[in-house]
Amino acid sequence: MGSYDHELDALLERNRTWAAGMTRSDPTFFARLAQQQTPRYLWIGCSDSRVPANQILGLMPGEIFVHRNVANVVVHTDLNCLSVIQFALEVLKVRHIIVCGHYGCSGVRAALHDLKLGLIDNWLRHVQDVRNRSREELQALPHDEARLARLCELNALAQGINVAESTLLQNAWARGQEVSVHSLIYGLDDGVLRKLAPSFDKPEDVAERKRELGW
Predict the structure, then answer these.
(1) Which residues in 55-102 belong to E strands, given as ranges?
(2) What crossing angle do the helices spanning 167-174 and 144-165 adopt, rounded to 10°?
(3) Measured between alpha carbons, how far is 60 from 66 in angstroms, rounded to an integer?
(4) If you placed Cys at 102, which of 137, 172, 186, 194 could pair as Cys (CB 3.0 to 4.6 Å)?
């Protein structure tokens, strides 16, 4: 048995310990969880291992539906992300879609500085589009870390707009479904979530946000 097997065994043992602890504290937890999931929230966040949705929101498994990718990007041609949004809206009937970025995002940093990382450079072009739209605002900031922090915020705002402009959200609002889109940012250094702007509840909100940002 190689060292990799030992590492996996250690993870499996941690899982068994966790499952046993959950059962001790709530003997019917897994039976209830297996029956259905009824989350009110869809979380679209970064793949960064330091930003686990359930834990930073204080929610249990089954309470939030999650999609994650590098730099929390929402692209209108990404069938993976769009399928998650459609399932969340039409099957789970979520009431809130949260797009959450985080300060110090390495994907955003790479986009800001045109770093060459390989295949992912193509994905991060979407973040560079946000950078390019806000170039004057970013250049006016006093130092690089301020520019990185602001681009993390602007990226979360932009991806929230992309969610709201998707045909899935537009159709949901058109049929009278009550669903809001929120753009948040997470601080790795303090564990606090911050709301970046008012939420979207209808198509008109999106146009107003784009005017505010000069996009």
Answers:
(1) 64-69, 96-102
(2) 50
(3) 13
(4) 186
pLDDT per residue, tens digit, the chain (215 aa), is 566 888 999 989 998 998 999 899 999 888 888 877 789 999 999 999 999 999 999 998 889 999 999 999 999 999 999 999 999 999 999 999 999 999 999 999 999 999 999 999 999 999 999 999 999 999 999 999 999 999 999 999 999 999 999 999 999 999 999 999 999 999 999 999 999 999 999 999 999 999 999 99
| pTM of this structure | 0.91
Assess contact for 151 and 112: CB atoms under 8 A: yes
Q: Could you give the C-alpha distances from 10 to 151, 157, 161, 180, in angstroms and in order?
A: 38, 39, 42, 41
Could you tell me the CA-to-CA distances from 186 to 24, 145, 156 in Å, in that order?
32, 16, 10
Q: CA 200, CA 209: separation in Å to the nearest integer?
A: 9
Tally Cβ neighbours within 10 Å of residue 148.
21
Residue 130 CB partners (closer than 8 Å, separation 6+): 111, 151, 154, 155, 158
Confirm if 89 and 65 have CB atoms less than 8 A apart: no
Q: Answer whether 183's CB lies under 8 Å from 144's CB.
A: no
